[in-house]
Amino acid sequence: MSWVRICEIFKAASPEATTGPRLGETVTIKGWVRTVRESKADGGLCFVALSDGTCFDPIQVVCKAAGPEALANFAEVAKLTTGCSVEVDGTLVASQGKGQAVEILAVGSKGGAVRIIGQVDNPDTYPVSNKRHTFEYLREVAHLRVRTNTFGAVARVRHTLSMAMHRFYDQRGFFYVHTPIITASDCEGAGQMFKVSTLDMLKPPRNEQGGIDHSHDFFGKEAHLTVSGQLNVETYCQALSRVYTFGPTFRAENSNTSRHLAEFWMIEPEIAFADLRDDANLAEEFIKFLIQTLLDERSDDMKFFDERIEKGLIDRLKDVVAKPFRHLPYTEGVRILKEAQSKGDAKFEFGVDWGKDLQSEHERYLTEKHFKQPVVLMNYPKQIKAFYMRMNPPGTDNAPGDTVAAMDVLVPGVGEIIGGSQREERLDVLDARLAEMGLNKADYWWYRDLRRYGTTPHAGFGLGFERMMMFATGMQNVRDVIPFPRAPKQAEF
RNA sequence: UCCCCGAUAGCUCAAUGGUAGAGCGACCGGCUGUUAACCGGUAGGUUCUAGGUUCGAGUCCUAGUCGGGGAGCCA
């Protein structure tokens, strides 16, 4: 008797299927009990909804107390509760009831067709009992929440998105580069970093100034967890042409929002001999590919999100794939926002001025109200962007000040999902920017080398994987789209 | 980090400063090829923690812890 996954059974039941278990075939399935219902009909029946996590729907196992298929342990099986693990030998049959096309009829008592593997200690206090639970509560039982409909679907979608991402880049000749998690370069710029050290925190070695002497530390200097793989991946880009990195990223910011994590995953492609336009096109093509793959390959889970998490989700996503993204300069975005404000179409808490960073409310107005679709904002004022972004020629977009070739992709419901730019490939301009921002040239020696030895125009972006998850599923809290969220005061599991 | 809100049964929530309640879940029984099942019953409480006010505190006050929403930082 062969052990099959429940998804194979459902797949084989579709009219066009040519492989997989057929009606009348006897198979073994293994999984966890979702619900048990008992009936006195036909001399005693019970229905066990069994899930092995391979697809959204559980399969119904029918057990009989009387007749040729009677189970010797029927009474025990009928007492199973949510969460118990079992193995079932049974025959695949067309269902006599409504609600499912096929089901498993547990075979007769001789072989012990339903083998109970793991009981649930105390059903009264089982944390994910068969009832509705809030996401807030389920976060407190993150080790068990994946057994629920929602988190099972999230886990499968997360996997499918990861695989789709690798496929997308592989098909286009990108190489996957494993950039380091630990960095001692201390020149990544963005945000507060987590320290990595093996020094005794109670009595660390001191230098002459009384500070901590990191020359005695593991790496001989101060080290941190990475906040971005970009600077490293740029080096590989300048030899392999098209590369990407995908890995965890760490920010020690005390951020308490539904969109921020201390540990999150980021996809960062980098392309050589390319400009900002190429970068924006790649970003758009990438997002559309991910969504199309989900709609094609995870239709059961997506149907659930559409019905229970965000009504109209699937239509919204199909629309995202069908229409070109709206591209516009930051300068134009500011003009639209100012006009909306003066005409009374929008009320903003914060003022809009060229040269200032856009607030969340501004970004959301553009993507959710004004254009009602993903928006790519390009060419930001240089003073609000990082040193490595390429200086635009004066007069770009008729802007009232200097701009850099940066772009953000904004999507409805989430806001900023991608941040990217064309990189400054001219050493003299890069050095001027470093000086302007008070950064020490020497710290960036290897990054500057890329501009000394065969520099190329190149560009890249970072896509927040969890934000993509939120956009694709309609889930509203970033802590619910990663298995074990890391946030301030939150690292239990 | 800032602003606002919250913490009571396994879960979701009620309860004028005066005996601690419901729904769901669990358990027992009834009914049914059942499927968010339905009907009846039973059990289940250090009201987040530490102080304080009061004859009396789930309720009022102070501090703390944790959680949620929004903001900033960003992905």
* Shape category: elongated
By CATH, the topology of the largest domain is: BirA Bifunctional Protein, domain 2
CATH class of the largest domain: Alpha Beta
Structural class based on helices, strands and sheet pairing: alpha+beta
- What is the spatial order of strands in the main beta sheet? 8-12-13-18-17-16-15-14
Distance between the termini: 38 Å
Tally of distinct domains: 2
The averaged pLDDT comes out at 93
What share of residues is helical? Answer: 25-40%
Beta-strand level of the residues, as a percent range? 15-25%
The helix tally amounts to 13
Q: How many extended strands?
A: 18
CATH superfamily of the largest domain: Bira Bifunctional Protein, Domain 2
Protein described:
With 493 residues, the chain is α+β, with helices and mostly antiparallel strands. The chain has two domains: 2-125, Nucleic acid-binding proteins (OB fold (Dihydrolipoamide Acetyltransferase, E2P)); 147-191 and 227-480, BirA Bifunctional Protein, domain 2, CATH 3.30.930.10. The chain has 13 helices and 18 strands. It has helices spanning 6-13, 74-78, 135-139, 149-171, 230-240, 276-297, 299-309, 313-322, 330-342, 360-370, 427-436, 445-452, 465-473; strands spanning 2-3, 26-39, 45-51, 59-64, 85-94, 102-106, 114-118, 175-176, 182-183, 195-196, 223-225, 242-250, 263-272, 326-329, 375-381, 403-411, 415-423, 458-464. Strands 8-12-13-18-17-16-15-14 form an eight-stranded mixed beta sheet, sandwiched between helices. Strands 2-3-4-6-5 form a five-stranded mixed barrel. β1, α1 and β2 form a beta-alpha-beta unit. α4 (149-171) crosses α7. The longest helix has 23 residues, at 149-171. It is elongated. The mean pLDDT is 93. The structure holds one RNA strand of 75 nucleotides.
